[in-house]
Amino acid sequence: MPCAPGRPQAKLRIILDTNVVLFALLWRGTPYCLLQTIRQREDIKRVSSNLLLEELADVLTRPGAAKRLALFNATAGQILADYAEAAHFVTPGAITRVIADDPDDDHVIAAAITAGANAIVSGDRHLLSLRTYRDIPILSPSDTLALITGAPS
Predict the structure, then answer these.
(1) What residues are paired with 44 via a beta bridge?
(2) What is the pLDDT of residues 34-72, one digit of tens each?
(3) Which 8-state DSSP code applies to residue 93?
(4) Domains in the chain, start-ordered, CATH in brackets?
(5) Beta-strand relationship, 12-16 and 44-49
(6) Is the pTM of this model over 0.85?
(7) d(CA 35, CA 49)
(8) 3: Cβ–Cβ under 8 A, 6 or more apart, which residues?
(9) What value does the mean pLDDT of the chain take?
(10) Buried-exposed string 54-77: b where 16+ CB fall within 10 A, e elsewhere
(11) d(Cα 153, Cα 144) in Å, to the nearest integer?
């Protein structure tokens, strides 16, 4: 699947949930194309936090991810450093509980609020079911890719 950069828009600030980042880094598909498109676009900032980076580091060291990384001849540390290098980091404040069934998702929302994000991108059903939080849309990777490239989803 070719990844098209799309048309520049106003400056966007996007939070990628860890599940999207994991799929973008280890498999080829829509999350991969989304991450590649974001990397090619100066009008889009990928925002993260230390807690989200720590979560990604944990997931990348699990056996399934380690097997996948071996196919790329890469280590979790290399992949993590490359990902973090292009991200803009925020330190989110505490927020009241939003996702009762998965409190870890609250940090994604807190990071988005702190960053003044234009979108949260997730594959997590708890976040996607909200659709929006404080005027921040919560989108799937395919909907986000369509939004930033101008292609139909």
Answers:
(1) 12
(2) 999 999 999 999 999 999 999 999 999 999 999 999 999
(3) P
(4) 12-149 (3.40.50.1010)
(5) parallel
(6) yes
(7) 17
(8) 32, 33, 36, 37
(9) 91
(10) ebbbebbeeeebeebbeeeebebe
(11) 9
